[in-house]
Amino acid sequence: MALGASSQALGVALALAAFAAPAMAQDAPAADPAQSADTQGEEIVITGIRASLASSAAIKRDQSMIVDSISAEDVGKLPDVSIADSLARLPGVTAQRLEGRDQRLSIRGLGPDFSTTLLNGREQVTVGDNRGVEYDQYPSEFFKTVNVYKSADASLVAAGIAGTVDLRMLRPLDSKTAFVVSARGQMNEKDKLNPDGSRYGYRASATYVGKFAGDTLGIAIGLSAQSTPTQIERYAAWGFPTEPAAGGNLFLGGAKPYVQSNVLKRYGGVATVEWAPSENFHSTFDALYSNFEETQRLRGIEFPIAPTWGSNAVIQPGYTVEDGLVTEATLTNVVGVQRNDFNKRSADNLSLGWNNDLRLSDSVHFVVDASWSRATRTDFLLETYSGTGYNSSGAKDTIHISHNSDGTYDIVPTLDYTNTGIIRLTDPRGWGFNGTQTVVQAGFLNRPDFTDDLKSLRASFNGEFSNSIVKGWEVGANYSRREKQSRYTSYFLCPPGGGTNCTVASGTPTSFAVPADALLDEQVSLGYLGVPKMLTYDPMKVYGLLNSVFDNRPDSLVRDNVITEKVLTGYAKLAIDGTVGGKALKGSLGFQVVHTKQGSSGQIAALQAGVVTTAPVDGEISYTNFLPSATFSVELDDGFYIKLGAAQTMVRPRLDQERITQAVSVDFSKIGLGGSPQNSPFSSNGGNFELKPYKSDNIDVSFEKYFHGGGYLALTGFFKHLTDFVDPNNSVLYDFSALLSVLPPAQRAIVVAQNAQFGLVKAPANTGRGEILGVEATASLPFSVFSQALDGFGIFATGSYVDSKIVYADNSPVTLPGQSKWIGTGTAYFEKNGFQARATYRWRDEFLAELAGLSANPEYRTGKAEGVLDAQIGYEFQSGPLTGLSILAQAKNLTDAPFVTTEAGDTRLTREYQRYGRDYYLGLSYKF
After folding, report:
1. pLDDT at residue number 23
2. pTM of the entire predicted model
């Protein structure tokens, strides 16, 4: 990586743009891109995608900040299936697909942990585990515009380092009276992969906008409901160890092929009341509520394969090796674990906001804004296991594995995994262990729940100056209090009929037969990877029969925590709007002073002599940050703008990293290994409540050319210097002498003699630093700018390049999660006389993907480059008895692009492979 070379490339590109753009400028003054006028002055109104792009261009042009926007084509109609789909079309924005849907947004190479999401300018909580907002919680029908701010302004409170996404609901006093209803059906091309799944879904919404009392009172109400199915063929490899039994070549460590059927049900509502009884007072109240419930049915078989990883399988002679990787082999003595799992996730999201603007004089306003955002979520994550006998005591399988071109392996078994004569509910591999004793783990249940609450109060004064290029001023303060509670409970599930606490020693039965009434009529096929059928039953019925025992291992207990952040932000800015040297200039100069008091409470847990001990703990820290900012936009020629931004921004760490909790471990097997901290029998793992925010010094420059009649070209460069970057794997030396008393005298003497009481405490710390450099290009061109014969045709295309160099304190390099060096999107459209058609292709380079690992902890692996094609076609009746009726057909993922992650930079070593299939939609809407 050579940031120096990238810096030179950026400089050359921007210099060329600076010289070339004025030559492209037309003599005609810039017009509102949302409409154009002919020589007679008659207004020509455009609608649909063309109106959406024109409105977005107008927002971009008129802002002195660097911003990209999405605008609704009509009331209740953003241009894509979801908000995340729409955002992923913007320059520098990518989305990682999870569960078949665009979810994790990255802006300028930085993942969702580095951006913030606002609703009508107010910071929002999330139903997710951390800060990153899951856009599924917001029905797209409720929003008029979505703005992505890429530079900072002093009045933009809670801005992110990567960018700030602001979801904007419509304002009834600025809208026409309307009543719109819509309904849409959905079908996945794959038949249901699980017999209790579904391939069909629906979406329905209704929106009303009305004005009353002489247009001084406006009301907007929206309702939405949806049921969205997803069918996923999944493959997960455990890894690829060097296998001595296969000549030291890489070997498939284990694999889990399974099929997944999801249904996401969501309903929600919004209401906006806007009141402007006079020119001196304006009040707006917003409310949004969303409830969603997602159920997942997952069935598959885990195959431990590599002998070196303890599978006890035997590799038969005659295996095939290609370039150091075993690509085909037969193994005997294989013990598989069948899985019939059920997950259910329920969440509620409520957001309230009340804004009041009082004019104190002709030039001074006083604004008060109060808001409350609250999210709750509960998960029910059930695993059930079956096999031929407890702890490898039953019949063994012989399997044949063969490597496919996509990096997956076919796994062809010999056993009949649907035979209830040999398959029982049990712990097939003997994996169950409660920290001190072996347990019969025929299943496991995780039940985490989260509450995220944010209250905020903001007050500001703003005014205007006369006869000055400094046109206005604003001073204000914002106080917020956020509290996120994370609670985790988990249970071992074991066969009924005896014993205590599921332990083997107490006589817990090691297996029991699958109840006949739990079996489903249809058996799941894993034929896409070689497994003909597997035993298929209702896991909830089995759950009702299993005994459950609370999991009180230290690592489980210390996950409960509460994070509290009290933030007072004061800000001031001057607004610039005037003419300098005959050129129009707009901008702002300002700063924020942010005082934070953050704290955490939870437990420290340890396992000593077979007894779990816990102790409550809490802590709090305060700090203050000063964040200056400046933005400028100068119109050098008609329709040609240069925009500059410079600011220092910050974003807080992941909430799970701010927890104070620690799990202390005493490993007796390390006694006598020496005095290095890594060999100490004492260690601890947890969070750090004293973490400070990531900081970034940012420089942004944008060249933008807007054409008469609509459309624009933009070239933007950005540079970020990052400090206080969080190292999640940081460890520090710690004196554990206080724990020496838990050791027997002889072992204690060995530890003291070797000075091994000094161990490592793993806790994240602000040790990293680095730089990010990038270029974004956008072309939004209605072809009518070239010829009226092409009126109706157009393109919207973007391309981005991002380079980064981040290092921790030990100078070890960091790959940023979510960063693709190259990304590109292109939308080609035609829209005229009510007919519309468009296709969008999104491509991204390889990237570091984030996935949920064991106990929902994040894991990172390289995601392969992917390209996704979406398309739609529709017609709106503009005359006759059907006026107001629209028909729309859409298709997502026409390329059937899988989500794939690999290991060690070798595309042959596929770790995750998920195929979602194509989704088709057909909808009707009617506007009264």
Report:
1. 36
2. 0.89
